[in-house]
Amino acid sequence: MTKQTFIKGALILLAAGIVNRILAFVPRIALPRIIGPEGVGIYQLGYPFLIVLLTLITGGIPLAVAKWIAEAESQGDAKRVKHIFRSAMALTLMLAAALTALFVWLTPWITVHLMTDPRVLQTFRMMSPLLLIIGVSAVYRGYFQGKQNMIPTALSQTVETVIRIIFALLFAKWLLPLGLAWGAAGAMLGVVAGEVAGFAVLLLQYARERRRRSAASSAPADEQASDQAARVPAYGGQAPTERIPVMRRLVSLSVPVTASRMIGSFSYLLESIFTARALLMAGIATGAATAQYGALQGMIIPILLLPTALTYSLAVSLVPSLSEAAAKGDKKTIHIRLHQSMRLSLVTGAPFVVVMLLFAEPICRVLYDHAEIAPMLKWIAPVGLFIYLQAPLQAALQALDKPATALTNTFIGAVVKLVLILKLASMPSLGIYGALIAININIVLVTVLHWISVMRFVGFRMQWLDFAKVGAAMMIMGAAALWVMNLRSLPALWLNLAAACAAGVVVYLILMVALRIIDRSDAARLPVIGRWFRT
User: Fold this and answer.
1) Whole-angstrom Cα distance, residue 388 to residue 342?
2) For residue 459, what is the DSSP state?
3) Residue 80: what are its φ and ψ, rounded to 5°?
4) Which terminus of the chain is less hemmed in, N or C, by CB atoms within 10 Å?
5) What is the pTM of this model?
6) Please, are residues 13 and 150 in contact by the beta-carbon 8 Å criterion?
């Protein structure tokens, strides 16, 4: 088993995240051209229910597994690692099976009574196998992350993305002749194919690790017999008496995190229902409301979330790293890791915000051939930095055993967002932009609350001069990018857009080095080229 440092683990997940985000834009670009914004809306309406159910299954268990296994590994307790993994897998399988059966049973009622567009029925049916597949995969990922080996997670995510892209587009095209609802359902079936492939990769990685561990083991016969006794099923041996407290603590660790994420997931579900109904109240027809919701959630939000490839990798690596440091009482390491993750999130997210704000119209025209949705991107782009900073902050609260605080902050933001959606999106003068305003306020509010909480618990402070430097670099970068774009020296819109973005990023990176936001030690951590910066 290869254990990586915090930075190396984050970079492994970052590399996979960047590849996956880039690849994921293939269906984001192609799917609206196959099934249109309305078909994308039908496809997206199914996701909030899926996320709610997946949160119940995976919301806290994998994180608890990663956190607890990291603690056990730091103490060299291999036996406890084994109990944690098996207990988590048993609990997940039970939850996934029960919720899958409940979901299949309630699907007809949900699509008729809760959704504003009953065409989502086929999409719901296609996504039901995902609960079991993703639930089990999440436990394996938590196991590997707890051992601070991010390679299996990164590899499985990449394989899942590639397979999902291929089959989502193929199935959507093949089933579209049956109707728009079946085209959206075909895209969801492609998601199932991708998750199956990602799960297969995790199984192979786990089997490979077990073979390696078995080959490296040279324990005497009596120790092997003791290890075999630890594998006795739940009805005999010593394992049951040890597994019960393991299960209890696993539940106690996962429930607060699940509750916190459940608020976010349930808020997303209510957001989809409230937005659709508010748009109807504003006098927008069902088909048009579905298309507007699909444009927002399936086309605009994915652009905004591109930099979260980094923030996700930082958050995943941060949990076991901070958990291990907290277990040792190493406050200095906690501050170092928090500062690294926050600074990286700020520096990498800032240029994306500039590009989205300045070039919303050409971006939407090039990617989707739907320039009319560009104002949505302009409205939501400024809050991008708050999204990018939110993930490391939430991960820090969870790793420091403060999930209840994250729960409270998320709940406050969710209530404010839902109230504002009902009030603003139902106004004919605002419509979908009322929902955008509510989402923006929610993002800013939750991030600020998380930030205040982290500062209160660990005394962590960001250097405000860093924000001033990054803000100045953003303005200069924007001016340079606009100048290049306005030259229109290249024959195609996408070429001019690419040139403007490239010029802006080069100027931004030069400023980051000149202002000493990025230094030699940061560059030295980069893979491949990092050795050139090491003394």
Assistant:
1) 9
2) -
3) -70, -35
4) C
5) 0.71
6) yes
